[in-house]
Design goal:
The protein is built from 16 helices and 2 strands. The chain is mostly helical. The chain has 2 domains: 26-161, no CATH class; 166-310, Four Helix Bundle (Hemerythrin (Met), subunit A) (Up-down Bundle), CATH 1.20.120.
């Protein structure tokens, strides 16, 4: 007899997310300190050219210390010897609480972003290209988050967790959970590779892996349902078979005329037009937002197909 008591029933499920949230590796932290220097200079002198502030790092230290309920951010806080900048950087590097570590980043970037958008300092901002500096720093910060597989992004003046966004929590994660099933092992590997390529800026490869995951999911469904398809069947043929076998209810086609267009030309078209063969010697540049859209589209379509199969 096997007892399934509370502890087993409530054992945390294996996290199928593609991002990490509870760790910030040291190389990432060091890279962020370079961004602090880009924004403020090594001792805050860059920002002093734009606004009337004696010591920006002193402000940061006092804000965080008050918020954390401490007097100092680090044990070694002798400002006359090392300065507030040292306390802020060392506190950031040493902080063990991931949420508080994120606070260090958000405080600095939020402050810089607010200054860059403040009309009161418009002349100095333009004179010293501070708005451009801030945008480059934000872009690099988000790239570093992706580079280290961290589920955070700086968006609209604050840092957000990706799993708190509707698209990620309601589409991407449920799709990953479905793909974690044994029979979808191949599709899961391809979809994870798509995310990995996306995080590393390999956008052509990301689109190709999206298409593979999409095709694999349909092929797995066809095999289980014993719908005849060749092993070399392309996405358009696989979609046709799925419709012919009423995987998608026929009455939906009359109400949602765009559904078949989305399935047939959505993901495959993105791949064929932007990353497929025949691009010539000069590979076309793919904007990041298109790849993110393609990944979300792939996740949504996979989720839809598997749920449709469950309701056959």
């Amino acid at each position: 007899m096997i007892l399934e008591l509370f502890s087993k029933r409530n054992k945390p499920k294996k996290d199928t997310d593609v991002y990490l949230y509870d760790v910030l590796p040291n190389p990432f932290r060091v890279q962020v300190t370079y961004l602090f220097n880009d924004l403020f200079g090594k001792h805050g002198e860059r920002l002093r050219l734009i606004i009337n502030v004696d010591d920006i790092y002193k402000e940061f230290v006092e804000w965080l210390a008050r918020d954390f309920g401490v007097y100092h951010l680090t044990e070694d806080y002798m400002h006359e010897n090392f300065g507030y900048q040292s306390e802020y950087i060392n506190g950031f590097l040493a902080e063990k609480d991931v949420n508080k570590t994120i606070d260090y980043i958000e405080l600095a970037f939020r402050f810089a972003n607010n200054i860059a958008q403040n009309e009161k300092y418009e002349y100095n901002i333009q004179r010293y290209n501070f708005d451009s500096t801030v945008q480059k720093a934000i872009n690099e910060l988000n790239f570093r988050f992706d580079e280290h597989n961290l589920g955070y992004q700086f968006v609209e003046g604050q840092i957000i967790r990706r799993d708190n966004t509707f698209t990620h929590s309601e589409i991407v994660k449920p799709s990953l959970e479905i793909l974690s099933r044994k029979r979808f092992k191949g599709a899961s590997s391809e979809f994870h590779k798509a995310h990995e390529h996306y995080r590393n800026g390999k956008y052509h490869e990301a689109l190709n892996e999206c298409l593979k995951a999409f095709e694999s999911t349909m092929r797995i469904i066809c095999d289980k349902q014993k719908w005849t398809v060749k092993s070399t069947a392309t996405a358009s043929i696989l979609i046709k078979v799925c419709f012919e076998n009423n995987l998608v209810p026929s009455f939906w086609e009359s109400k949602f005329t765009s559904l078949r267009t989305l399935l047939e030309s959505g993901v495959p078209t993105a791949r064929n037009k932007l990353s497929g063969h025949g691009a010539g010697s000069e590979e076309k540049e793919i904007p990041r937002y298109i790849v993110e859209y393609a990944i979300n589209m792939t996740a949504s379509t996979i989720l839809f197909l598997v749920q449709a199969e469950e309701n056959l």
